[in-house]
Amino acid sequence: MLSVIIPTDGVEQDAVATLAALVPGAAAGVIKEVLLVDRAGTDVIEHVADVAGCDFLPFQGSRAAAMAAGAKQARSPWLMFLHAGAVLDAGWIEETSQFIQRVSTSDRPRAGIFRYARSPYSDARFTDSLKYLARMLTGPSADQGLLIARDHYDRLGGYADARRSEARLIRRLGRSSRTLLRSRISVA
User: Is 125 helix (H, G, I), strand (E, B) or coil?
Assistant: First the structure.
């Protein structure tokens, strides 16, 4: 049903935190495959993928290009893009399943973006307040994850190997084509 694409930079702790939040989704049958697309060129993430039962794709290039390469290799009709270190709340499984069912039966393509939550383990700083204010004014950012049907992703042109292409894809979705999901995503 769902392929999860996670670009990594060779940091084991971030990848493991994100994968741990996905385990219940795999057990529930929502997740068909997880692709770790590593841009660091070390064996660390390859080992994590092997232990976790994920697919591994070494890649050289930008994060957006890595996500595009992962999407090209993914086999499911739905794609979920998460940054390494992003952790989904427990309720994401049911909400994601319902979202996919609603959109699949609708004639209107939509994409889902998870609700932002600052990591409870990070120290609150003034810059965090500014980022929150920016999210309120400009809309969601790329680190909030993206849930999108493959055909809709392809129609929009997907991620390109260009500067700020993650933000461009979210902008191309527009307000009318995206749904802010209730499930939170903690971003470190």
Answer: coil
Which residues contact residue 53 at a Cβ distance below 8 angstroms, ignoring those fewer than 6 apart? Answer: none
- pLDDT at position 137 over 60: no
The pair of structure tokens assigned to 116 is 């932002």
Alpha carbon distance 144, 142 (integer Å): 5
Cβ atoms of 96 and 2 within 8 Å: the answer is yes
Class of domain 2-187: alpha beta
Q: Is the pTM of this model over 0.85?
A: yes
Q: What is the mean pLDDT of residues 36-41?
A: 90
The distance of Cα 159 from the centroid of its chain, to the nearest Å, equals 12
Alpha carbon of residue 69 to chain centroid: 14
The answer to whether the beta carbons of residues 185 and 89 sit under 8 Å apart is yes
Rounded Cα distance between 176 and 123, Å, is 34
* Burial bucket for residue 5 (CB in 10 Å: 0-12, 13-18, 19+): buried
Say what the pLDDT of residue 172 is. Answer: 84
